[in-house]
Automatic annotation (TrEMBL):
It comes from Methanococcoides alaskense. Keywords: DNA recombination, DNA-binding, Transposition. This is IS605 OrfB family transposase. In the C-terminal section; belongs to the transposase 35 family. GO terms for molecular function: DNA binding. It comes from the Archaea. Residues 157-246 form the Probable transposase IS891/IS1136/IS1341 domain. One of its GO terms (biological process) is DNA recombination.
Length: 294
């Protein structure tokens, strides 16, 4: 099983500037490689490597070769993901991938050395108490993310450990719905007036703000959508945790495939249906159950 932890990085201003330049150049190379693959209708890493690597190294010798290869791999995966139907593009400060050759993470001392366009940069971090349970796991990959609004860097580290062996065969059936987020076959319902009222509040605010149509209204709408998304995530986490801690070994969820394209029952119903992440709840139940050997 895999877990990803997020670490806030601290470094001198010189190191920060080096990493900014690295992020920008990595994404520039991504776009160059993606353009070649799209124009030549291929996402093969081998053919794209032979066609682009030498030229990119000559144009951008300051970017470490491993990062050039990383940008190529990410671009090929993006082309494959969209089935070459459109050109994937990275933004100026999109997150970049690091492999083990270009980053060294030392959890016990709270630092890492990261490759950049001007050599290695030493970054420091503080590990939150909750993440300490993962420190003995195997490091699989990492991604560097730059928050341009707050001028902060974050390192996302993916760790892996062997999943516990499943045991037992007692089954809990789970239905997901609109009035009740989850209904279990042991007659446990997950919903309360707080969730219902909060969902109604956000629906009302969206309606009022969208009617304005101004730039400030659009900014506020984006801010509110973030709050609502975090609210939904928090509720789904709590529900999933309570479900997997029930005395059952197997969790059977109803199949919701194509539920959003089935016959609708009016504007209000459609809004409520699209306003909750049922798939996210399923994913939370899946990984929390796996960690418990269920």
């Amino acid at each position: 099983m895999d877990r990803t932890i997020k670490l806030k990085l601290e470094m001198p201003n010189e190191g920060k500037e080096n990493l900014k330049q690295t992020v920008v150049l990595f994404n520039h190379v991504f776009n160059e490689v993606a353009s070649y693959g799209f124009n030549n209708h291929t996402h093969s890493k081998v053919s794209i490597h032979h066609a682009t690597y030498k030229d990119i190294r000559e144009l951008h010798p300051e970017l470490p070769s491993s990062l050039v290869q990383g940008a190529r791999d990410v671009a090929c995966e993006a082309l494959k993901g969209v089935k070459l139907k459109r050109l994937p593009q990275s933004h100026l400060f999109s997150a970049i991938r690091y492999n083990k050759r270009v980053i060294r993470i030392v959890f016990e001392h709270g630092y890492a050395t990261v490759a950049s366009v001007n050599g290695r940069v030493k970054v420091c971090f503080t590990i939150p108490k909750y993440y300490e349970q993962y420190l003995g796991w195997e490091i699989r990959s990492s991604a560097l993310n730059y928050d341009s609004r707050n001028d902060l860097f974050y390192l996302h580290v993916t760790l892996r450990a062997e999943s516990p062996k499943p045991s037992g065969n007692t089954v809990l059936g789970i239905d997901r719905g609109i009035v009740n987020v989850a209904v279990c076959s042991n007659n446990v319902f997950f919903n309360d007036s707080g969730v219902k009222n909060t969902r109604a509040k956000y629906a009302y605010l969206r309606k009022e703000i969208q009617s304005k149509g101004t730039k400030s209204a659009k900014r506020l709408l984006k801010k509110i959508s973030g709050r609502e998304r975090r609210f939904v995530t928090d509720v789904n986490h709590h529900i999933a945790k309570e479900i997997v801690n029930m005395p059952f070994d197997v969790f059977a969820l109803e199949d919701l495939t194509s539920i959003r394209v089935q016959k609708r029952r009016g504007k209000n119903f459609n809004r409520k249906l699209n306003n909750w992440s049922f798939y996210q709840l399923e994913q939370f139940i899946r990984y929390k159950a796996e960690a418990l050997g269920k």
